[in-house]
């Protein structure tokens, strides 16, 4: 209530519809709903229970890695090495298990390896001041090459059954989808409710101002790449368990799907703005598109073209929205 010319006036509160439209996730949520309706109309068997859970299974790896990528992009960075880390880490774990290392030991070692590769990216970017695109392009090539080297270009298969369980399901619910949901919740909580999350937004919004306010920018940037590496390790675990094998070509091109999920979800590619909730919706959109196009027998070439177009449109919408807000 304000006092204007001696009179009390009550400020009109925005209505529910206005709040919904102002929400950053409103547009992509509507897009997801429209897409699901379209696929239900045109793609055979899209709305069956098995296919719905199949969509969740298919996006599990992308969704988990997209959580780490959201952290990275919020700092105005990028991680092109995610697919190579998944392939290298999956092979490392598979080879350890074949050599007699207990399953739990191999899994923990794989998570550590993912974190160490992420730390290397963080060191190159935060300490040596390399551009994230250049640094992760280099490590992408390095670790894909290492994946071929340690495996001799051959798959490693027939893994312990206790490990393969992680790629299975509980009833009709895929275990990889459960893991993905847990990672979404943890990632969202840290970003929204912790000091570390607030610092990530501050660094992406204005790195110089964040530095002047006392935030250790280099340490935070290094840590988001470690988070990305750990997310890749988790994705490697469920992918390797699903396939009961590890191959040097695993997750080739997954960075396209991951970046698409984050960009479609509304995270600003220049940093400082975005949320895990948007990334969830973005991952679902990419999964629904891929699944629907597969059901419609659309070839991989056109599918990749569509994904590329969607990324461009998502970034264009971000630019238009920024200009309207300026």
From TrEMBL:
<feature type="transmembrane region" description="Helical">
    <location>
        <begin position="26"/>
        <end position="46"/>
    </location>
</feature>
<keyword id="KW-0813">Transport</keyword>
<dbReference type="GO" id="GO:0005886">
    <property type="term" value="C:plasma membrane"/>
</dbReference>
<feature type="transmembrane region" description="Helical">
    <location>
        <begin position="103"/>
        <end position="126"/>
    </location>
</feature>
<dbReference type="GO" id="GO:0022857">
    <property type="term" value="F:transmembrane transporter activity"/>
</dbReference>
<feature type="transmembrane region" description="Helical">
    <location>
        <begin position="221"/>
        <end position="241"/>
    </location>
</feature>
<protein>
    <submittedName>
        <fullName>Ribose ABC transporter permease</fullName>
    </submittedName>
</protein>
<feature type="transmembrane region" description="Helical">
    <location>
        <begin position="170"/>
        <end position="191"/>
    </location>
</feature>
<feature type="transmembrane region" description="Helical">
    <location>
        <begin position="133"/>
        <end position="150"/>
    </location>
</feature>
<keyword id="KW-0472">Membrane</keyword>
<keyword id="KW-0812">Transmembrane</keyword>
<keyword id="KW-1133">Transmembrane helix</keyword>
<feature type="transmembrane region" description="Helical">
    <location>
        <begin position="52"/>
        <end position="73"/>
    </location>
</feature>
<dbReference type="InterPro" id="IPR001851">
    <property type="entry name" value="ABC_transp_permease"/>
</dbReference>
<keyword id="KW-0997">Cell inner membrane</keyword>
<dbReference type="Pfam" id="PF02653">
    <property type="entry name" value="BPD_transp_2"/>
</dbReference>
<keyword id="KW-1003">Cell membrane</keyword>
């Amino acid at each position: 209530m304000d006092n204007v010319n001696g009179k009390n006036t009550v400020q009109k509160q925005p209505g529910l519809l206005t709040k919904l439209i102002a929400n950053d996730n409103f547009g992509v949520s509507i897009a997801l709903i429209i897409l699901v309706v379209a696929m239900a109309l045109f793609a055979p068997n899209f709305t069956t229970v098995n296919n719905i859970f199949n969509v969740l299974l298919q996006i599990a790896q992308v969704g988990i890695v997209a959580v780490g990528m959201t952290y990275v992009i919020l700092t105005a960075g990028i991680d092109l090495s995610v697919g190579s880390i998944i392939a290298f880490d999956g092979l490392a774990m598979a080879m350890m298990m074949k050599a007699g290392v207990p399953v739990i030991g191999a899994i923990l070692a794989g998570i550590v390896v993912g974190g160490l590769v992420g730390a290397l990216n963080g060191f190159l970017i935060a300490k040596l001041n390399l551009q994230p695109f250049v640094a992760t392009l280099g490590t992408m090539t390095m670790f894909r090459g290492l994946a071929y080297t340690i495996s001799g270009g051959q798959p490693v298969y027939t893994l312990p059954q206790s490990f393969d369980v992680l790629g299975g399901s509980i009833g009709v619910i895929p275990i990889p989808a459960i893991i993905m949901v847990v990672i979404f919740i943890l990632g969202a909580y840290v970003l929204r409710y912790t000091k570390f999350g607030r610092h990530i937004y501050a660094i992406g919004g204005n790195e110089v101002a964040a530095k002047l306010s006392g935030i250790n920018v280099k340490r935070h940037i290094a840590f988001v790449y470690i988070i990305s590496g750990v997310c890749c390790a988790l994705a490697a675990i469920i992918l390797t368990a699903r396939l009961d094998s590890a191959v040097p070509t695993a997750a080739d091109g997954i960075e396209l799907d991951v970046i698409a999920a984050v960009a479609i979800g509304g995270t600003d590619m220049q940093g400082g703005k975005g949320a895990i909730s948007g990334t969830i919706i973005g991952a679902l959109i990419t999964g629904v598109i891929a699944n629907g196009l597969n059901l419609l027998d659309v070839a991989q070439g056109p599918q990749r073209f569509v994904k590329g177009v969607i990324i461009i449109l998502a970034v264009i919408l971000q630019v238009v929205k920024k200009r309207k807000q300026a």
